[in-house]
Amino acid sequence: MSAPPATLRPPQPVAPQPPAPRAMAPSHLYFSAERVGAMALRYLYLLRASWTRIIEIIYWPTMQMVLWGLISRYVLTATTVLHQAAGLFLAAVLLWEVLFRSQMGVHTMFQEEMYARNLGHLFISPLRPYEMVVALLSVSLVRTLLSAGSAALLAIPLYHFSIFTLGLPLLAFFVNLLIFGWAFGLVLCAMLLRFGFGAEGLAWAGIFALTPIAGVYYPIATLPEWLQPVALAFPAAYVFEGMRAVLLRGEFRTDLFFAALALNAVYLALGGAVFLISFGVARRRGLLLQVGE
Amino acid sequence: METFDIEVQRLTKHYGALAAVQELSFAVRRGATMALLGGNGAGKTTTLSILIGLLEPTAGRVTILGEDMLRHRHRVLPRMNFSSPYVDLPHRLTVRDNLRVFGHLYRLDRIGERIARLSEELGFAQLLKRPYGSLSAGQKTRVTLAKALINEPDVLLMDEPTASLDPDMADYVRGYLQAYQARTGATLLLASHNMTEVERLCRDVVMLREGVKVDEGSPQHLIAKYGRQTLEDVFIDIARRRRRPGEEDDVPPPLPAVAQPACAESPVAQPTAARPSSGPPGTQAGANGGAAGRKEVS
Predict the structure, then answer these.
(1) A21 at B interface, C-beta within 8 A
(2) Is position A69 within any domain?
(3) Which of A31, A37, B76, B237 could make a disulfide contact with B242, Cβ separation 3.0–4.6 Å?
């Protein structure tokens, strides 16, 4: 070992000092309020740092109250109609499941990649973002067929109601709800990419925001007048109106079908664009390697 | 005429007002191994992230295998790969399934054979049916390396390639990488805090500090230039902004002002000539940087 050059002075020794006495806490406690407090503080910090989580707290009760209030209003005015079509609610629930599962099929799969911190590996492979989008949509289709299909089959022995009696219109409803769910799911993926797991609550809650205004359980006419144009901006409203037309009057409304299809084309394009833009932003900000809470 | 597989010109990355990398330029010859060295936050991971296409630079140019990486990265990505213990694979998938997915992403043939060979060579054949999440840190590092080699890349980028491995396995992996390079002529670029590893594997080194290149050359050249015994000493000199022999320090070295208990072995109480200290907080002066667990993008 040669001596270091004169310019490379080693750090000056610091006079040894006795270690500062540590505050001793009882270590034998099986339960520590302080530790509980520390963890509570950790969760509050998490909440404070995420506006999406704060919104989620007030979101669910509000949604339930609005939804069931509107259902009650419809039931009060339409009991005779309901008697004519006992399966109306069941059909609505099953079709709603298509929309819910298709959007969930997209965003939960994407979320899995985030949980696994795998996005970095995926996007250094030749995988292109739009290929991932197509993969997500394909898996979503399979998941939707499995979950909504099994629920529909279960309704036959349990309630003696078969949604398959709708015939070909069922396929039209399914396609429209599936596509809208995809579009919604892609926007949620974009939010997860942008805001991290803080947006997870919104991802789950997002589609339920539509429930009251999509006319799932009651006609759009039940809504306050000012809300009806908003409802008609979503393809789901046309699908559920169409479902009621088939069940109550035995009529398939092609106008509603094509309106939903046209809106879906716009929404799917928007969903894809938002996802790809969000992916570009993630690349600029280095989020693909550090997605998290 | 020399061919460069990786060429980086005036690369700059800003996060708002923070400059993570500034005007960085270097080139890696075909078939050579280069290391990016620097303390935490020096810009190594940022540079690697840009090179693999996960991060867009603010300015600059990156050419890999003759292609403009910023404009045509998908032409190059099938021929390169990346290994990092800090980027996970899906935990619930088995090791074999994980590797199979990547085999398909790279559109490889005989994926099963490749997985079998890599798992044998890297010593995890018995783990193929285990969920990735159930593996130890060292086992994960080997699986991640297998993932990085599954497409036999011409350019392989690595962040701490032997992190979490025991010395025996780390030595084996270094030998394996050298054999891989000799067999395929691949170009390797790695970021590491393990100076022994860098001295063994690398022909060239780029020293970074606060996103700026402060020096470059072969490990032997840098050791001689700084008049030191090891690359680790050079690393510490650069991290503490000390100049070469005969030059004045431009910035006083940050002295650890932490009171230490009296101890005969304390490097503070008894500084040695060859190794001034065990390193101040923020530098990784140990033989193996030992950065286990998660790491933020620097």
Answers:
(1) no
(2) yes
(3) B237
Each of the 298 residues of chain B gets a pLDDT tens digit; together they read 679 999 999 999 998 888 999 999 999 999 999 999 988 888 998 999 999 999 999 999 999 999 999 888 888 999 999 998 777 888 888 899 999 989 998 888 899 999 999 999 999 999 999 999 899 988 998 999 999 999 999 999 999 888 878 888 888 889 999 999 999 999 999 998 888 889 889 989 999 999 999 999 999 999 998 888 888 888 888 877 765 555 555 544 444 444 444 333 333 333 333 333 333 333 333 333 333 333 333 3
Alpha-carbon distances, residue B215 vs B24, B226, B235 (angstroms): 11, 11, 10
List domains and CATH numbers for chain B.
1-298 (3.40.50.300)
Rama region for B81: left / alpha / beta (φ>0; ψ in -120 to 50; rest): beta
Could you tell me whether strands B187-191 and B33-37 are parallel, antiparallel, or unpaired per DSSP bridges? parallel
Q: What single string gives the DSSP state of each residue in A19-43? A: PPPPPPPPS--S--HHHHHHHHHHH
Q: Is residue A219 part of a domain?
A: yes
CB contact under 8 A, A11 and B256: yes
Per the structure, the count of domains in chain A is 1
Q: Are strands B59-64 and B67-68 parallel, antiparallel or unpaired?
A: antiparallel
Task: In whole angstroms, give the CA distance from residue B190 to residue B156.
Answer: 8
Question: Is position A145 within any domain?
Answer: yes
DSSP secondary structure, B9-48, as one string: EEEEEEETTEEEEEEEEEEEETT-EEEEE-STTSSHHHHH
Nearest chain A alpha carbon to B78: A126
Task: Look at A14 and B105 and tell me if their CB atoms are within 8 Å.
Answer: no
Residue A5 at interface with chain B, using a CB cutoff of 8 Å:
yes
List the one residue out of B163, B13, B12 whose CA is nearest residue B86: B163
Q: Are strands B59-64 and B155-159 parallel, antiparallel or unpaired?
A: unpaired
Chain B residues with CB-CB distance to A110 below 8 A: none
Q: Does residue A143 lie in a domain region? A: yes
Q: Which amino acid is at A60?
A: W
Distance (Å, rounded) from C-alpha A213 to C-alpha A193?
27
- Closest-CA distance, B175 to chain A, in angstroms, reads 24
Q: Is the ipTM of this complex over 0.90?
A: no
Range of the domain at A134: 59-289
User: B46, A286: Cβ pair inside 8 Å?
Assistant: yes
- B81 and A124 within 8 Å at the Cβ level: the answer is yes
